[in-house]
Automatic annotation (TrEMBL):
Entry-linked PANTHER family: PENICILLIN-BINDING PROTEIN ACTIVATOR LPOB
The name this protein goes by in its record: Penicillin-binding protein activator LpoB
Chief place where the protein resides: membrane
Any Pfam family the entry gives: LpoB
Superkingdom: Bacteria
Compositional bias segments (type: Low complexity): 53-63
One biological process term in Gene Ontology: peptidoglycan biosynthetic process
Subunit structure: Interacts with PBP1b.
Annotated organism of origin: Pseudenterobacter timonensis
Record's subcellular location: Cell outer membrane
Gene: lpoB
Signal peptide, first to last residue: 1-23
């Protein structure tokens, strides 16, 4: 009787241990994701891709059209009766006392001392023409005068400007007299002044003045 009880106990213990092993080897039942109350696996958050911002390109202006500046009005060209003012003065100068016939005369360019613009070159040419056949003076040629001015660093068209410079040029070219002329006052009705100077002493031996009319 004791042996049977002992056998039954061993058998029951063996069955119990076999049941425990089989439970241990069975895999756990899958978690039903559809059932409420179950814990869902946390999925990693994917970073949102950053789209670079394209800078706005400002509109390029079209080709700049160069506008021509407005035409400047041409300066008014004034014409004067130089001969009408010079010839009477030249006649009086040739009759002045103390002028030696056959002397060399330097005719300086007419200086513009008016309040505007005038053609002083035209005035100088008219004065030389009035003295071309005077019968008393030998004129220094324009070529000689140009060379003498070049030695002073002046262009042939430049006026000597001052009486002292005119006398210095006259000495270089061997002249005994200098005729210094200038237009002054209002450019619309200038006044012409002429002075005959002795080169050796700078003395003014004759002077004259007259009005110049526009043509």
């Amino acid at each position: 009787m004791n042996n049977m009880s002992r056998y039954a106990l061993v058998t029951a213990l063996a069955l119990f241990l076999a049941g425990c092993v089989s439970r241990t080897e069975q895999p756990p039942a899958p978690v039903d994701e559809a059932k409420p109350g179950t814990t869902q696996p946390v999925q990693p958050t994917q970073p949102v891709p950053t789209v670079p911002t394209v800078p706005t390109v400002p509109e390029q202006p079209g080709p700049i059209e160069h506008q021509e500046p407005p035409a400047q009005p041409e300066p008014r060209v004034r014409h004067y009766d130089w001969n009408g003012a010079m010839q009477p003065m030249v006649d009086k100068m040739l009759q002045a006392q103390g002028v030696s016939a056959g002397s060399v005369l330097l005719v300086d360019s007419v200086n513009n001392r008016t309040n505007g613009s005038l053609n002083a070159g035209e005035a100088t040419e008219t004065l030389r023409s009035a003295l071309a056949n005077n019968g008393k003076f030998t004129l220094v040629s324009t070529q000689q005068l140009a060379v003498a001015k070049q030695q002073l660093g002046l262009s042939p068209q430049d006026s000597l400007g001052t009486r002292s410079k005119a006398i210095g040029i006259a000495r270089n070219v061997g002249a005994q007299y200098v005729l210094y002329s200038s237009a002054s006052g209002n450019v619309n009705a200038p006044s012409l002044q002429m002075q005959l100077m002795l080169v050796q002493t700078g003395e003014i031996i004759w002077s004259g003045k007259g009005a110049v009319q526009q043509q």
